[in-house]
Amino acid sequence: MKKFKKLVALILVGVMAMAMLTACGGGGGGSKSFATEVEDAVFAVYSQAFGVKTNDAEAKKLAQTALGYVKDGKFYEKDFEDHCITVDEAKYQIMIAMPIPGADANDNYNYYTVMEITPEMLAQLKSADIPVEDIKEINEMLKKYETMGCKVTGLGVAAKTINGKTYAAFGFKMEIDINKLPQ
Predict the structure, then answer these.
(1) What is the CB-side half-sphere exposure of residue 88 using CA atoms within 13 A?
(2) What's the CA gap between 153 and 112, in Å, rounded?
(3) Structural domain boundaries of the chain?
């Protein structure tokens, strides 16, 4: 289990770095709520990068939990550690969720500013494909994790309007192959 916990720590660092790399912007309309439109658009971008077709219910639920800890547009490291990571040692599975960081998210290790999705950003997100270099970077990261025994098996995206501002979060479900863990 010591190797398993070490890998979980490595994965957390990678997920945080990836979130900062792929922070996305995104305008609305139609019969869906704005938050639902944001959720659909953000999932479309991330699903393209991760090659998944379904918004995983468990990972989405954890992403919704993460959004519940956004305070004044900030997400705190303590809430991430206490509420947004699940480890199932019996199944060798971990889930991690976090709100999407804002482009101006600071380097404060206690919290970061969460990206507010505006109608203009949503319009841009719906009309644009994720840049090829970002997909390549994500795929390289995923391959690196797979060589370490970790495979992303689910992606969940949630969006929520809090005090008139809409935020999105993502959750990852990963399975660990203990036979591939680094020594």
Answers:
(1) 11
(2) 27
(3) 2-178
pLDDT of residue 183: 66
Task: For residue 87, give the DSSP letter.
Answer: E
Q: Which two tokens stand for residue 18?
A: 């990836």
Distance CA 14, CA 67 (A): 20
Phi-psi region of 72 (alpha: psi -120 to 50; beta: other; left: phi over 0): left
Please report, as a single letter, which amino acid is at residue 122. Answer: L
Mode of pairing for the β-strands spanning 150-162 and 93-99? unpaired
Interatomic CA distance for residues 114 and 112, integer angstroms: 6
| Nearest CA among 178, 166, 180, 148 for reference residue 25 | 166
Mean pLDDT in each 10-residue stretch from start to end of the chain (183 residues)?
A: 47 48 43 90 83 93 97 93 92 92 76 92 78 69 81 93 95 86 68
Q: Which two tokens stand for residue 132?
A: 């090829």
**Cβ contacts of 33 within 8 Å, gap of 6 or more:** 161
The torsion angles phi and psi of 105, rounded to 5 degrees, stand at: -55, 135
Nearest to 16 by CA among 61, 70, 77: 77
Q: Specify the pLDDT at position 11.
A: 52
